[in-house]
Amino acid sequence: MIAISYQVFFEVAHHLSFSKAAVALYLSQPAVSKHVKNIEVQLGTSLFNRNGNTISLTPFGKKLHEHLFEANAIQKQLEYDLSILNGQEKAKGSLKLGASTTVSLYILPRIISQFHTNHPNVHIQLLNRNSENILEALLKKEIDLAIIEGQNKSNRVSYTFFTDEEVIAVCSTDSPYANRRPLELMELRQVPFALRERGSGTLYVLMKELEQQNIKLTDLNVKVRLGGTEALKNFLIEDICIGFLPRISVVKELERNELVQVPINNLSVFRHFYFGMRQGENTYGLIRAFIQLVKSQY
């Protein structure tokens, strides 16, 4: 197992902050500093450049951090592989997931609950951000597995298809655009829209589909931009604007007649969800078990 001093160094290197590492590890800041100092004395070199309140890794620190990341991955795999020999319910380990908003809110809760039932001793963390930020967290090695919309062109990430989800136009039942004839593409430049923030997977696939119809996002009459699916949904219930949301996120609102779908002729928007993993890294047993459960449910 990795010695405590090296675990402390790893956390400081990750946050580039002694105080944040202390909070994460439930240690005092002097204790964190002492652990790092012990390693520096042992190795006979400085691991951090200290400049006032900011720190950065020295070349020695960067190399140690790289090796410790690999060692942590091996330790996690070893812990899982040995514990599961006593049965799935005895499996131990930790799994850090990152998922785009729609997946986090409407798909993963049931799956995580099922996974926790099967693996009660596994600690699970879920980071909920838009796809762009989740991909960044994956590349920064802050999470083990990403579930995002679309495939970024980065050669640092490998993708495995997960599922498709339709994106539909909706508005309040009090909106003048509710329960009327389908909109034509040419009308999209006049009707008021409320859209997601930049970096949103929903916004990205909408933009790509509109471009196929020779329409740019800047051509739309966008009145409001809101961060997050729930924020946009709640706004649309109260306003007359039209917005685009994943069908899975508005099922209850459609059933309760709080929102209605707005048909748009010749416009069909689907999002493609993928598992994202860092290119070249081995997928250890716990991640494989989670992916298998997700695929069995979808």
Topology:
Elements: H1 4-15, H2 18-25, H3 29-43, E1 48-51, E2 54-57, H4 59-83, E3 93-99, H5 101-106, H6 108-118, E4 122-128, H7 131-139, E5 145-149, E6 157-172, E7 192-196, H8 201-212, E8 221-226, H9 229-238, E9 243-246, H10 251-255, E10 259-261, E11 269-278, H11 285-297
Parallel strand pairs: 3-4, 3-5, 7-8
Antiparallel strand pairs: 1-2, 5-11, 6-9, 6-10, 6-11
Helix pairs in contact: 1-2, 1-3, 1-4, 2-3
Could you give a short description of this structure?
This protein has helices at residues 4-15, 18-25, 29-43, 59-83, 101-106, 108-118, 131-139, 201-212, 229-238, 251-255, 285-297, and strands spanning 48-51, 54-57, 93-99, 122-128, 145-149, 157-172, 192-196, 221-226, 243-246, 259-261, 269-278. The chain has 298 residues and is an alpha/beta fold.
How would you describe this protein?
The protein has 298 residues and is α/β, with parallel strands linked by helices. It is built from 11 helices and 11 strands. Helix 1 packs across helix 3 and helix 2 packs across helix 3.
Spans of 5+ residues with little confidence (pLDDT < 50)? none
Query: Helicity level, as a percent range?
Result: 40-55%
Mean pLDDT: 88
* Element string (H = helix, E = strand): HHHEEHEHHEHEEEHEHEHEEH
Main β-sheet: number of strands, strand sense, barrel status? 7 strands, mixed
Number of strands: 11
Structural class by SSE content: alpha/beta
Q: Roughly how many Å apart are the termini?
A: 37 Å
Q: How does the overall form come out from the CA principal axes?
A: elongated
Count of alpha/pi helices: 11
Report Rg: 23 Å
The portion of residues forming beta strands comes to: 15-25%
